[in-house]
Each structure stands twice: as C-alpha cells, then as structure tokens.
C-alpha cells in the first residue's frame, strides 16, 4: 500500500509505522501507473487514465507551391469535438524543402476509451509575421483518429494529403510518428534490508540520494523496529523506490543509508552511514555498521510498463461478445422489444456498435467471437443454451469485422427461440477455457475483453462469481452493459466496487478488479460517452494484469510459429462425448458439417439432422 508522507527536518518520513510495504520517490498523480493504481482503488480523477502521446511530423514529396523557391511548410494539429476543431499545437516552419522533417513535436492526450478525431494540416508559409494567419495558405490535410497512430505498425502513420478544394492529384504524403511522452522513470526497486548483531533496542533507517552538488539528501525513512536480543536478526518491511528518485536511473550511482538508534525526544543517534549502489545490493553485499551489519536480502527490479508500452509493442486486444436472447427482452417483432427489428430503436445494436468501433482498432485480424445465451435454435437444439455461437458454428465462432457481427446479429433475430433464464456462468466459463488454452498452450501475448449485453439480473449468481474470480488470474476484462430498465442489482454486485467477489468453489477472493458495469439507459443518446464509460478502466486492468504477472511488452521481432487451435481441441472433445453417447461416426460428421451452434451433445435432438435456417 502507499502510505502518507510528510516533511520532517528536510526529509520525508512516515506519518505512521505501518506493517505493510511503502512506496517512495513520487507524488500523487505523478505518472500513469500511479494513476492506474489510484483508479483501481476508486479514487482517480476524471482524466487519471489519459496518457500523453508525443507526435513527430514529416512530409514526403510535397507539391511545390512557390514560384521562385521550394515550399516553406509548417504543420498545424487540431482536435475535433462536437463539430468544432481546436488547435492544440504546431511545428516550426522549414523553408525551401519538399521533404521536411520537423523538429517541434506536438503533445496530445490519448484516451483509449474515446474516438478522438484529429485534423493535421500542412501550410505553405509565405508571411513569417507571427501575427499573420496561416489559414489562407493551406496545402492539404489528413483527417484521422488518435488511435490510428497508436495502432499503426511501429506507431508510424502515413497518408496522402487531401486537397482542401477537393481536387485530385498528388500533394505529398504526411508521416506521423507517435511515442508515449517519456516519464521520469519506468523502473522501480523493491528492497528489503536485514540487520544482524545490533545491540540497541529501537532502530530505524533513512535512505539518502546524491544531489547534483554532491550532498546526500534524505528522502525516505523506515519503520522503527524493536530488537530484543543483541544477536537477533531483524528484517525491515520492504521499501519500493523509483530509480529516478534514488539514482537518476543509474544503477552504479551512489546512494546512502543511515541507521539510527531511536530516541523519544527526537535526539536520534547515528549508528553509521553506508554508501551503496543498486548493483551492490543486487550482488548481496554485507555492509558493516559501527555495531552490527546490514545487507539487502531482496533487491527486486521491476519495470513499470504502461498501457502504451504494450500497444506499441504489438499487444492485441481481442473482443469477445455475449448477447442476451432471453424471453424478457421481448419478441423482436414487438415495438417494445429490446431486440427491435427497427434497428434505430435496437439498444443491443447501439451498445455493440459504440463499444466495438473503439475496440476493433486494436485487433489486427478484425475477427470477433460472438455468442448468444438464453435461447435455442429450432431444428437443432432441443433445450436452451447459455453459450451458443451466433454464426452457428461453435467450433469456429469468429466473425469477420464489426459490420459482419452486426449483419449476423440482424439475420438471426427471427430464427432464435427466446427463452431463459438469464445465466452468465456458461459463457464466462467457455471464455476462461479459451483464454487459459491460449495462455498456457500457445503462450499468446494478447488481452481479451468479454462484452456481455443483458436486460436483467441473473439466476446463477454464485456460479457466475466463481467464473469471474477464475478470470481474475487471466488476461481478461469483463464489460457488462445493462440494456432496458431493470434494476440490475446483481450487476452492481458483480462490479465489486463495494465488496470483493469470493468464489466458494475456488476458496479465494478475486485477484483484481476486472468487471465494469454500465447501464445503457444512462447514455443511450450519447454513444461516445457510453464507449468512454464502458472502456475507461481497461488500460488499468490490462497493466495491472501484465505487471502482476511480470509480463513485459511484446517485441515486434518475436518469432511466431504454428499454434494449436482451441476450437479444434474443443471439436475433439465433443466427438468423443458423442461416441460415448452411442452416436455413429457418420452422424457425428454430418452434424459437424452442418455446423453446430453449441458444443454440448445433450442439447441436440436425437433424430437425424435437418437443414436449418439458422444463419
């Protein structure tokens, strides 16, 4: 935990003497990781999860618009919102150059959960008077979204300039390179000191950093320890320090630790000073005090990676979709149905589009696994399924592009038998197995978002909690969008803002907060705000998982060999179950060729399969 700090005699000391570890070397709101931690503890401000993106600009083969020399160009960057655009920065002017490389960068706040529109314009500057408007000399522009830069290979975005008058012809290319604005440090150390042969009863230490003037400045202090016997060893609580604060990111730069015999009047007596480097601590060196010794029994280095570190490294975010087709939604043909055939009134479609338009940019193959629950398929399934593939093939449930998902959803509205009850456990369990397979067997470096859209409370609460707790140890976030006017009391429980979820089956609490619930009715007239509310916790959830598992960002040059296929393995298990139930091989193969929406043999009719209208 992070504990309160206050200035005492020019140093930073603790308000209390906690029993847990402390973090030093930063202040509230200092960087993204800190903001993420704060947000996960439900204390962050409105923009705590934004990241600063530094944009660098160049042009290639600009058209020459000057008559006596080559183009004098500058780049101006605008953010667009509510039909208006606002200038956020501009570069210097480079004269007589058709391939300018601009030195001045522009900083833009990047929000994962928002669709941020930009216009980057290139101007020819003939009048160098700073008060002169550049609007009259526009060469061309590029309209884009901030995530277009983030998700481009190597964060390098290239587009041809668009003529402001709509004319055709090559004006030149605009090149934008993005990188996260550098923080003071991404490295921290977790250090645990042990003392031996100390004759004093109450001791503590202060950590000191080396200043530019060569003096040591105290910046962190330990708890006070009680030592009962002179020959007793004592292990202090671990201290976490950022390398920038301790040694300016140089592991061979000196720092100093000073031990004190505690005095209730504040007249603490020094027991000795020790100069050290992080390298020496990692090597396990023992240092002498005036009486006794000290050594670091732990000096653990941790890279404090950010969301953009993972995205720039090539980490993909896979969207998995679950749609509630229970009877309480109402028949699609009814005007009041939440699955209204009048798509302009269809809340499921609106929620799917708002969230999907953001997430599809982070998935390179644009394939989405889509499942339904709470319905059956006439002619194929004799009972209700709580996890069936919307495209009719549970062994290949991926649908190409978000538009493909929308079209598949529309086609199936009339063919499903809406039923009930509303259960989440089956679909979350299926996704858990899929992700476990990818993590354990294929060692996939991917993060998954399960979007569940539902109209009401669930009837399998404990089973759902068990599966959510299981998912908290996997690279998964779960977003639940509540459609309609239900109270959604059980959704608030699953969100776990007030009380951590506990799995009776697993005998443990959730490892991290992965569920975000958003009622659609609060944002049904504002799809952008709906997307923001549903996705704003994802960057923190992703980095918390990766950092807890000590998974660094992937590298672009990482080799990718042949991978085992989860759906093929599922098909093998299904066929074995069918054989055990007495099905002949030809019938099993005919079922598989037809396409099965679910992988539970008990759900299917015992008669020979008929051609289905499903999908």
Give structural notes.
By secondary structure, this protein is α+β, with helices and mostly antiparallel strands. The protein is built from 14 helices and 32 strands. The strands form eight sheets. Strands 22, 23, 25, 26, 28, 29 and 32 form a seven-stranded mixed beta sheet that branches. Strands 3, 12, 16, 17, 20 and 21 form a six-stranded mixed beta sheet that branches. β20 and β21 (293-303) form a beta hairpin. α1 (32-40) packs across α12 (538-548), α6 (347-359) crosses α11 (527-535) and α8 (425-440) packs parallel to α9. The longest helix has 16 residues, at 425-440. It is flat. The protein starts with a strand and ends in a 21-residue tail after the last helix.
Q: Which whole number gives the mean pLDDT?
A: 82
Helix content: 10-25%
Oligomeric state of the chains? single chain
Overall, the morphology is flat
Spatial separation of the terminal alpha carbons: 52 Å
Largest sheet: 7 strands, mixed
Give the structural class.
Answer: alpha+beta
Uncertain segments are: 1-49, 605-615
Radius of gyration: 30 Å
Give the number of helices.
Answer: 14
Write the layout of secondary structure elements.
Blueprint: E1 5-8, E2 11-14, E3 22-24, H1 32-40, E4 51-60, E5 73-81, E6 84-90, E7 106-110, E8 117-124, E9 138-145, H2 146-150, E10 156-160, E11 173-180, E12 187-196, E13 202-210, E14 216-221, E15 225-226, E16 234-235, E17 239-242, H3 243-247, E18 255-261, E19 269-276, H4 278-282, E20 286-288, E21 293-303, H5 307-312, E22 316-324, H6 347-359, E23 367-373, E24 375-376, E25 388-389, E26 398-400, H7 402-412, E27 417-418, H8 425-440, E28 446-454, H9 461-471, E29 476-482, H10 489-495, E30 502-503, E31 508-509, E32 515-519, H11 527-535, H12 538-548, H13 566-580, H14 585-594
Parallel strand pairs: 3-17, 22-23, 22-28, 28-29, 29-32
Antiparallel strand pairs: 1-2, 4-7, 4-11, 5-6, 5-8, 8-9, 10-11, 12-16, 12-17, 12-21, 13-14, 13-15, 13-18, 18-19, 20-21, 23-25, 23-26, 24-27, 30-31
């Amino acid at each position: 935990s992070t504990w309160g700090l206050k200035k005492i005699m020019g140093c930073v000391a603790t308000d209390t003497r906690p029993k847990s570890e402390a973090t030093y070397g930063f202040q509230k709101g200092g960087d993204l990781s800190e903001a993420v931690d704060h947000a996960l503890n439900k204390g962050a401000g409105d923009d705590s999860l934004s990241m600063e993106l530094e944009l660098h600009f160049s042009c290639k083969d600009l058209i020459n618009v000057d008559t006596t020399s080559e183009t004098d160009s500058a780049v101006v960057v605008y953010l667009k919102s509510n039909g208006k655009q606002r200038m956020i920065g501009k570069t210097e002017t480079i004269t007589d150059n058709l391939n300018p490389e601009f030195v001045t960068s522009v900083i833009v706040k990047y929000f994962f959960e928002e669709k941020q529109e930009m216009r980057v314009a290139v101007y020819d500057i003939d009048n160098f008077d700073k008060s002169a408007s550049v609007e009259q000399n526009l060469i061309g522009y590029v309209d884009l979204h901030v995530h277009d830069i983030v998700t481009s290979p190597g964060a390098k975005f290239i587009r041809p300039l668009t003529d402001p008058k709509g004319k055709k012809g090559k004006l030149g290319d605009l090149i934008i390179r993005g990188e996260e604005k550098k923080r003071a440090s991404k490295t921290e150390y977790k250090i645990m000191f042990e003392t031996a042969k100390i004759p004093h009863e109450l001791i503590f230490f202060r950590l000191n950093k080396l200043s530019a003037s060569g003096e040591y400045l105290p910046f962190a202090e330990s708890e006070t320890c009680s030592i009962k016997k002179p020959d007793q060893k004592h292990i202090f609580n671990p201290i976490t320090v950022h390398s920038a604060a301790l040694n300016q990111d140089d592991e061979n730069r000196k720092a100093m630790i000073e031990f004190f015999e505690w005095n209730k009047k504040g007249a603490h007596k020094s027991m000795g000073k020790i100069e050290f480097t992080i390298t020496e601590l990692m090597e396990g060196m023992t240092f002498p005090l005036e009486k006794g010794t000290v050594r670091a029994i732990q000096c653990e280095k941790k890279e404090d990676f950010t969301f953009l570190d993972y995205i720039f490294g090539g980490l993909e975010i896979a969207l998995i979709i679950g749609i509630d087709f229970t009877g309480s939604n109402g028949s699609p043909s009814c005007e009041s149905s939440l699955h209204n055939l009048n798509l302009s009134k269809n809340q499921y479609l609106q929620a799917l589009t708002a969230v999907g338009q953001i997430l599809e940019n982070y998935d390179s193959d644009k394939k989405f696994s889509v499942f339904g629950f709470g319905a059956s398929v006439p002619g194929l399934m004799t009972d209700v399924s709580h996890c069936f593939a919307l495209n009719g093939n549970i062994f290949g449930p991926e649908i190409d592009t978000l538009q493909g998902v929308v079209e598949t959803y529309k086609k199936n509205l009339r063919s499903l038998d809406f039923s009930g009850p509303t259960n989440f456990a089956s679909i979350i369990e299926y996704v858990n197995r899929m992700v476990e397979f990818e993590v354990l067997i294929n060692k996939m470096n991917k993060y998954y978002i399960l979007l569940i859209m539902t109209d009401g409370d669930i009837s399998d609460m404990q089973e759902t909690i068990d599966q959510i707790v299981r998912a908290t140890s996997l690279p998964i976030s779960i977003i639940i969008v509540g459609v309609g006017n239900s109270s959604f009391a059980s959704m608030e429980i699953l969100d776990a803002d007030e009380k951590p979820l506990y799995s009776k089956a697993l005998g443990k609490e959730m490892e991290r907060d992965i569920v975000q619930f958003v009622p659609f009715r609060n944002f049904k007239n504002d799809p952008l705000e709906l997307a923001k509310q549903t996705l704003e916790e994802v960057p923190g959830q992703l980095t918390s998982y990766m950092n807890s598992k000590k998974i660094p960002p992937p590298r672009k040059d990482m080799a990718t060999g042949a991978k085992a296929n989860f759906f093929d393995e599922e098909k093998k298990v299904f066929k074995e179950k069918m054989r055990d139930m007495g099905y002949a091989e030809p019938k099993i193969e005919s079922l598989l060729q037809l396409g099965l929406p679910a992988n539970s043999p008990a759900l299917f009719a015992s008669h020979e399969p008929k051609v289905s209208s499903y999908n």
